[in-house]
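Re: the multi-chain job from yesterday

Posting the exact lines I submitted so nobody has to dig through the queue logs.
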Amino acid sequence: MKTRIALILAVAGLVIFAGYAALFIAPDEKTMHAIQRIFYFHVPSAISAFIAFFVVFIANTAYLVTRQSKWDWLGVAGAEVGVACCTVVLITGPIWARPVWGIWWTWDARLTSTFILWLLYVSYLILRGLLEDPQRRATLSAIFGIFAFLDVPLVYLSNRLWRTQHPQPVILGGENSGLAPGMGKVLLICWIAIVCVMIVLLIDRYCLERLRHEYEELRFEVESRAAAAESVKGAR
Amino acid sequence: MKNFESLFAAWMVVWAVFFLYEVTVARRIANLREDIERLKQQLRES
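And the result, structure tokens for all chains:
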């Protein structure tokens, strides 16, 4: 418990420092000014969503190979946390777009593929809720989770492959891309902060799934004992 | 500061989403722990 409180306090401290750095330390961007600072939460949230969905991909593959429940738990934890991060991306993007582009949303390749990514993992979570049998649920959702991950490279490459309203990449984007050194450092701090938040959420969500499994097992045992007691009563 | 309202709204959205999600997970964990304790109690009594 003490370790957990220390971890949460450390992450909270990092988040506060990251917020301060994004709002007050990062240099002002010449054309967009203040609104460009959304970049420091928007991009790290997108990278964190990609990491969470990669965790889902690894966990789902591992589940199909080993059939161990822990991989299924990690898969669903990653999917939910990834959806939370992707939701942040899809809300902060339009808030940034409105004053800069004059529109909230446009159906270009980057925005559309990101929205499809969000829909795919929401569907993954809905699919799990619809299936009663744990084995079938784990297997089908693992197959679906691997399929859904195919959209991640598509989102990443979308503004490299097609002309988009969304800006061209500033990180790993070729010769004419790049960030001012001050911006790069602040982006790194914000990215570490949001990844730490993502890890805390992932650990908690995994713990929830493990507890759910324990609950299902106990409920099965209670029901089995009740049924056995009923049959003994009936035999008498 | 121009567009400060939009920047503030985005900032609030980021932490509201993460915070509300963490609260829902923590509540679900607490409820499950209670249910598990109740079932363990039932097993001990049976």
